[in-house]
């Protein structure tokens, strides 16, 4: 197990990290075993063809193979890797460094240096632009350390506990509401429901005092949570937009990215319920996110985001902008899925122009990882076959599509949407052209069924039949 963890980790570290790791393995503060340093340098230089015999020979040159000694050496090296990753992660955040330094100074009784360091940390945090939930938690940590140092020397009546309470409450409210927004977003896909009673309590707490008026992290997630729970009350979404416009600079890029995506998800849900005004709302959020460079994660644009921007822009008639985005951001997709996603969205653009002959071969060859993309591609292929009169291919697709949908147990409402599309399309094919009685009966049944994918298209085909 140790061997697999070690090699798995080292193979995924960039060259810069491997170089520093080898230097640390030579540092007595991290490691005093020469065989560990040799093994680290060998693995960092090879990363392939790493048999146990070769690993042992690198760590113990000239000695006979000993599996137990190799396992112990690899375990020591894995400990060095763990310490390196933990330290480098801590060093990426100034607040974490301040906190751990203050805690170390307090525990060692270095009071004068602690006072100096706490003041320096407090000054840096006061001048930092961020005022997001994490900033409040970091402030809580620092105040906690200061109180721990003062408590043995000060009477409790002289200790100011209010900042501790304020920062922790802002962090708690913000995080609870953020998680609630995320849970409400994913419930449509069959996710576990968020504890409604607990959420009601959190919302009431946020509404009391100055938590909303004085703290944008609480206000943003509060208004968006209310918008998700009461989608018809658009005042909540408008309030969310206003807070975002006034306080976006107070959030770190990673948190601001999450805020934008939650707002976009809300717009998409409203679009899916027939509220067309939210198509423009989603488009403007996407465009603003691109301008602020917020939509990429770990350097890559997700296929979901790439697709949605193209779909929403096309729905608004922003064809020139969409064409530019489609080509300019192709290389922002991860190489693993870039080609499939590019062809999938190219097929969509052909499909939108009713160029079914060019869309069809692209759709037939697609291999997509995301199941919602796969469902969408099959719906486009279904419609392309129908429009081109490829009835034999369409019959085969309807059968395989229905089988696939019934095997999927966690598609949520998407299963019913697509199964009803398959069922009604099959019924449409069975009705003779001009059979008005059965066509009208089918039309009424489609209208009465709430969850039907491609409902407008189906009704058009029935009307034309």
Notes on the structure:
By secondary structure, the chain is mostly helical. The protein is 73% helix and 1% strand. It contains 24 helices and 2 strands. It has helices at residues 2-11, 15-25, 34-46, 52-59, 67-91, 94-107, 111-127, 133-150, 162-186, 196-207, 211-214, 216-229, 235-247, 253-272, 277-291, 303-315, 319-328, 338-352, 356-364, 371-387, 391-407, 413-430, 436-448, 455-464, and strands at residues 296-297, 300-301. A two-stranded antiparallel sheet has the order 1-2. Strand 1 and strand 2 form a beta hairpin.
List the helices and strands and how they pair.
Layout: H1 2-11, H2 15-25, H3 34-46, H4 52-59, H5 67-91, H6 94-107, H7 111-127, H8 133-150, H9 162-186, H10 196-207, H11 211-214, H12 216-229, H13 235-247, H14 253-272, H15 277-291, E1 296-297, E2 300-301, H16 303-315, H17 319-328, H18 338-352, H19 356-364, H20 371-387, H21 391-407, H22 413-430, H23 436-448, H24 455-464
Antiparallel strand pairs: 1-2
């Amino acid at each position: 197990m140790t061997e697999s963890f070690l090699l798995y980790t080292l193979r995924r570290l960039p060259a810069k990290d491997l170089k520093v790791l080898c230097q640390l393995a030579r540092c007595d503060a991290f490691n005093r075993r020469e065989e560990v340093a040799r093994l680290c340098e060998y693995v960092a230089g090879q990363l392939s063809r790493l048999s146990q015999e070769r690993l042992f020979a690198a760590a113990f040159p000239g000695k006979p193979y000993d599996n137990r000694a190799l396992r112990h050496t690899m375990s020591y090296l894995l400990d060095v890797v763990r310490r390196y990753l933990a330290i480098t992660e801590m060093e990426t955040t100034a607040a974490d460094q301040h906190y751990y330094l203050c805690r170390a100074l307090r525990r060692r009784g270095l009071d004068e240096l602690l006072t100096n360091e706490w003041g320096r940390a407090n000054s840096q945090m006061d001048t930092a632009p961020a005022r997001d939930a994490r900033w409040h938690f970091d402030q809580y940590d620092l105040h906690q350390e200061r109180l721990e140092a003062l408590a043995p020397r000060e009477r409790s009546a002289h200790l100011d506990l209010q900042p501790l309470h304020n920062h922790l409450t802002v962090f708690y409210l913000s995080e609870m509401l953020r998680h609630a927004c995320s849970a409400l977003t994913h419930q449509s896909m069959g996710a576990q429901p968020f504890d409604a009673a607990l959420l009601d309590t959190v919302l009431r707490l946020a509404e009391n005092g100055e938590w909303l008026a004085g703290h944008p992290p609480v206000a943003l997630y509060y208004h968006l949570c209310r918008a998700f729970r009461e989608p018809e009350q658009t005042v909540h979404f408008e309030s969310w937009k206003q807070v975002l416009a006034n306080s976006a600079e107070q959030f770190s890029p990673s948190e601001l990215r999450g805020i934008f995506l939650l707002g976009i998800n809300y717009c998409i849900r409203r679009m899916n319920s027939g509220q067309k005004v939210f198509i423009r709302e989603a488009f403007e959020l996407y465009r603003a996110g691109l301008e602020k460079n917020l939509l990429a994660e770990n350097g890559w644009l997700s296929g979901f985001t790439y697709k949605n921007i193209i779909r929403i822009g096309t729905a608004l008639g922003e064809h020139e902008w969409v064409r530019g985005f489609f080509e300019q951001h192709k290389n922002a997709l991860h190489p693993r899925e870039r080609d499939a996603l590019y062809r999938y969205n190219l097929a969509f653009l052909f499909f939108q122009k009713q160029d079914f002959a060019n869309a069809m071969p692209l759709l037939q060859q697609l291999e997509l990882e995301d199941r919602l993309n796969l469902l969408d591609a099959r719906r486009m292929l279904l419609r392309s076959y129908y429009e081109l009169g490829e009835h034999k291919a369409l019959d085969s697709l309807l059968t395989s599509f229905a089988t696939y949908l019934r095997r999927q147990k966690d598609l949520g409402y998407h299963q019913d949407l697509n199964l009803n599309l398959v069922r009604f399309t099959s019924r449409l094919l069975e009705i003779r052209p001009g059979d008005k009685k059965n066509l009208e009966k089918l039309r009424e049944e489609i209208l009465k069924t709430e969850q039907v994918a491609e409902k407008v298209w189906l009704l058009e085909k029935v009307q034309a039949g």
